[in-house]
Design brief:
CATH class of the largest domain: Alpha Beta
Number of domains: 3
CATH topology of the largest domain: Deoxyribonuclease I, Chain A
CATH superfamily of the largest domain: Endonuclease/exonuclease/phosphatase
Length: about 240
């Protein structure tokens, strides 16, 4: 399963586009993989699906309460209290689940959304992606150059250039793309019971991945040590 926690700043459409693009990229890289996104999207229920139509069109589904009296955020302004519904789960390839809205954690003005998922097969499955590498054509620049000049001198140069492109595509077929993944590192860590081996696995990542991973690891350690934020391992909370 892929879990994503996100936040969209209010009144920021560029942030909406960037968030959509990031989710689309993940969806492209993984096939038939359960995906759960939990976020403060900062859109009301009557707008949320329209704003993320690109995602709902490819099978993503927003999970929320249809009860018009239900809310996820409560703020006090002077003598009045404003209640809004701004937080959602966005899921794909998730079967049976139970969704609830609970009281806030600590001093948060957002209520706690909980989803209990009852699904056995939640493996991450890579999608095979192939692409053409221009570097392969660069290995034979002289031949390509001669064919291009010949095509440009032909009276039907547009058609000949099109034929040249197709011939290059045939000679240099697309290759499988090697994608970098933090999930592979996490799977290896999960299987390893040796601390020295775990450190070696992490250090083999790029420096950026190493610092990012250790930052997340430190946040997890702090969170788990705080009893106020202890939770049932079968629940996903936001």
């Amino acid at each position: 399963m892929i879990l994503i926690n996100a936040y969209r700043r209010p009144q920021n459409e560029d942030n909406t586009k960037r968030l959509t693009a990031a989710i689309e990229r993940i969806n492209l890289n993984y096939k038939d993989t359960p995906i759960v996104i939990f976020a403060d999207f900062n859109y009301p229920r009557d707008e949320i699906r329209h704003k993320f139509k690109n995602l709902t069109d490819v099978g993503f589904k927003f999970i929320y309460s249809p009860d018009p009296e239900m809310y996820t955020r409560s703020q006090k302004y002077g003598d009045t209290i404003q209640q809004s519904y701004l937080d959602y789960f966005l899921i794909k390839n998730i079967g049976e689940f139970r969704f609830t809205i609970n009281e806030p954690i600590g001093n948060s003005d957002h209520r706690c959304l909980s989803m209990d998922i009852h699904q056995n097969d939640m493996r991450i499955k890579r999608r095979i992606i192939k692409e053409r590498k221009f570097s392969m054509i660069n290995e034979d620049p002289e031949e390509t150059g001669k064919l291009l000049l010949k095509a440009l001198k032909d009276p039907e140069c547009v058609a000949k250039c099109g034929d040249l492109v197709e011939s290059r595509r045939t000679k240099f077929p697309p290759l499988r793309t090697k994608l970098k993944s933090h999930f592979k590192v996490i799977e290896k860590l999960n299987k390893s019971k040796n601390w020295d081996a775990i450190k070696a696995i992490i250090k083999k990542c790029s420096e950026e991945s190493y610092h990012q991973f250790m930052s997340c690891f430190e946040k997890l350690r702090i969170t788990q040590s705080d009893k106020e934020y202890s939770q049932d391992s079968d629940s996903i909370l936001t």
